[in-house]
Design a protein that fits this description.
mainly alpha, 3-stranded antiparallel sheet
């Protein structure tokens, strides 16, 4: 059984209270610290570790063919922890400063075509209703899909929405992103209409916007299941997730002339470099169009 780790406990409390980290970040950090402690028993204590210990851990993860993104996430937690130990607890050395991580893989985001998006959005109201679902489930599912594509919001942001966050007068939605940063996203008329239809049919007047059959706030897992259900029915070859709808939102905006800075703000990216990957997708599409259409390409 894992013995108590007062340093890890205090660090996670700092991340939650002072840094206001999301539940998902806290869970990832707690898991990363625990997995390192359990990696090579007996754990000799954080103060005894050297750069070689972390290099050995890194090598072991790579040997087990863990993805680069997973490894980088695990080491981000360890690095934050040791930064806290040196800055807040007065530790003299940070062995992780000497550990070089594998470079991040540059994978271009997979996006849907406009026709694929439109076929997905039409599915909830055209498919046969399941007797197990609430009577208003098709309207709710349409509103979920429409909002994802209309705003590009993250799964966690959509699940956290309350009725009061949507302003039909200004046609905006208030979103709380990473680190509880608030932003206003414009909402298209189709998405607003879908939300209004759902609210009327389900009699949702206040509190959480999207409800489960038991009229509790819908969970992230349930929304994932909703997306999976319609993706399977759609026949679209690309495996669909909420994040791919976000990718599609950003890429379609850039393809139609939106500037990068505006897309950055709409997505809630802290850094413009995070948004720039979508320009590569746009450029790639332009090249494909050029090569298929230009007589001397």
């Amino acid at each position: 059984m894992d013995s108590p780790d007062p340093f890890a406990t205090a660090f996670l409390e700092f991340m939650e209270v002072e840094r206001r980290s999301s539940d998902r970040t806290l869970a990832n950090y707690e898991l990363a610290l625990r997995q390192f402690r359990e990696w090579r028993p007996p754990f000799k204590g954080w103060a005894e570790l050297t750069a070689d210990d972390f290099r050995a851990f890194l090598f072991d993860l790579m040997k087990r063919e863990r993805g680069r993104a997973t490894i980088r996430l695990q080491f981000a937690a360890l690095r934050s922890f040791f930064k806290w130990l040196t800055r807040r607890r007065g530790w003299k050395t940070n062995p992780l400063l000497e550990v070089q991580l594998p470079k991040r893989e540059k994978k271009l985001p997979v996006v849907l075509t406009l026709a694929q998006v439109e076929s997905m959005l039409a599915l909830p109201l055209s498919m046969e209703k399941s007797k197990r679902d609430a009577l208003w489930a098709p309207e709710r599912d349409t509103a979920i899909l429409e909002l994802f594509y209309s705003t590009g919001m993250r799964l966690s942001e959509l699940v956290a929405l309350n009725v009061a966050d949507i302003d039909t007068y200004t046609e905006t939605v208030r979103v709380f992103g990473k680190g509880s940063k608030e932003r206003l996203c414009p909402v298209g008329s189709k998405a607003l209409e879908a939300v209004q239809r759902y609210r009327l049919k389900a009699a949702v007047h206040d509190g959480p916007l999207f409800l489960s059959k038991l009229r509790k706030r819908i969970t992230a897992q349930a929304v994932d299941d909703v997306i999976m259900k319609y993706w399977r029915a759609s026949g679209i070859p690309v495996h669909l997730t909420p994040h791919k709808l976000r990718h599609s939102f950003a890429t379609h905006l850039l393809n139609n002339g939106a500037d990068l800075r505006s897309v950055q703000e709409l997505l809630g990216h802290a850094s413009l470099s995070t948004t720039q990957i979508y320009t590569h997708v746009s450029t790639q599409r332009m090249k494909e169009v050029y090569e298929s259409a230009h007589p001397r390409a």
